[in-house]
Amino acid sequence: MRVKIVGSAAGGGFPQWNCNYYLSRAARAGTIGVWPRTQSSLAVSADGLGWVLFNTSPDIRQQIASTPELQPQLGDGPRNTPIRAVVLTNADVDHIAGLLSLREREPFAIYATERVLSTLQANSIFNVLDAAIVPRRQLMEGEEIELADAEDRQIGIRILPFSVPGKVALYLEDAARPENNYGSESGDTIAVRIASNDDCHTAFYIPGCARIDPGLRQRLAGADCLFFDGTLYTDDEMLLAGVGPKTGQRMGHLAMSGRDGSISQLADVPIGRRIFVHINNTNPVLDESSVEHETVRAAGWEIGHDGMEIEL
Ligand code: MLT
Ligand code: MN
Predict the structure, then answer these.
(1) What is the distance between the alpha carbons of residues 248 and 254, in angstroms, rounded to a whole number?
(2) Nearest ligand 1 atom, CA 170
(3) Which of 79, 101, 239, 271 has the fewest Cβ atoms within 10 angstroms?
(4) How many Å from the N-terminal Cα to the C-terminal Cα in the chain?
(5) Torsion of CA 262, 276, 196, 265, to 10 degrees
(6) What is the pTM of this model?
(7) For the CA of 208, the nearest atom of ligand 1
(8) How many CB atoms within 10 Å of residue 240?
(9) pLDDT tens digits, residue range 198-213?
(10) In testing the pocket of ligand 1, which one of 18, 55, 93 has its CB within 8 Å of the most ligand atoms?
(11) Contact 11 CB / ligand 1 (< 6 Å)
């Protein structure tokens, strides 16, 4: 199974269009070790020919342009794509807006929970993807399925979707229900266990997660590779940077550092490779010369970057 990080930044990308924080400024200036990153997406293939995209970011056009595996293949007709299916882990803008760029009557299948499918359904702009050509298929939490392309041919990849603590997309929040996590429900944020049909290697893709509970620790034990929510280094980092009023917890994201952070909470869970993705433009680990970057690496984690490839 081949896994490629297509985009490693959180919503907004890095640098973000309006961000004047020192990190975005350094990335814009071309500073060595502060590399730009596109928004959150992962590509997986069992045979190196057909690919499954986990989330479709607003940067998808640029991402395809810089990823030969996702480009039209010679000899496959005047228009074609090796993208066989798209799996959505939530309805965030950074994860679904790329669907709009995949219009052009090219067949692939969309997989998402009922909650996320209902958002596509409610926003008629997504009808640019004709459901007769791009079927929408419902993921059931806790049910492992084999992914298939638009014509129901198997892709060689199976996934197990399951709910993780998180939040409904920002634009779907119910402001009247803060005590109910702003109207979040099960299925708003899922994690996926990914495996190929041919071997027993497993990867987990969890770009959004608010808390690590015993159930999640148990699921992750023994995984070959984990791609995990690396939005923030510290929970209040966006406030301290002066870029926004929200903590990570308020946004449904767990910080890397601290007693309750992901590094500490997963320290004793046996996992082959642990890689942070969905990294926000305020996270100091984006600077390879930072103490935080060094700390994360010393704790056994890798910082995902665009184009990073993992063979399992
Ligand atoms: C998130 O991951 O919290 C969202 O992508 C934030 C956003 O919509 O910008
Ligand atoms: Mn996001």
Answers:
(1) 6
(2) 8
(3) 79
(4) 5
(5) -10
(6) 0.98
(7) 2
(8) 9
(9) 878 999 999 999 999 9
(10) 93
(11) yes
- Is the minimum distance from the CB of 91 to ligand 1 under 6 angstroms? no
- In whole angstroms, give the CA distance from residue 208 to residue 189: 7
Per DSSP, the residues of 172-241 read G--TT-GGGGGG--TTSSEEEEEEETTS--EEEEES--S---HHHHHHHTTEEEEEEE-S-SSTTHHHHH
Q: How far does residue 78's CA lie from ligand 1's centre (Å)?
A: 36
**Tokens at residue 73, please?**
């293949």
How far apart are the CA of 98 and the centre of ligand 2, in A?
A: 13
The three-state secondary structure class of 166 is: coil
**Tens digits of per-residue pLDDT, 254-294?**
999 999 999 999 999 999 999 999 999 999 999 999 999 99
| Cβ of 170 less than 6 Å from ligand 1 | yes
The Cα 274–Cα 148 span in angstroms is 28
Ligand 2 centroid to residue 273 C-alpha, Å: 22
What are the Cα distances from residue 289, in Å, to 11, 109, 201?
23, 41, 33
Tokens coding 95: 């994860």
Residue 58 near ligand 1, beta carbon < 6 Å: no
All residues with CB under 5 Å from ion ligand 2: 11, 92, 94
Q: Are 247 and 236 in contact (CB under 8 A)?
A: yes
pLDDT grade, residue 194 (50/70/90)? very high
Q: How confident is the model at residue 159 (pLDDT cuts 50, 70, 90)?
A: very high
Cβ 10 under 6 angstroms from ligand 1: yes
Q: Alpha carbon of 283 to those of 10, 54, 86: distances in Å?
A: 10, 23, 28
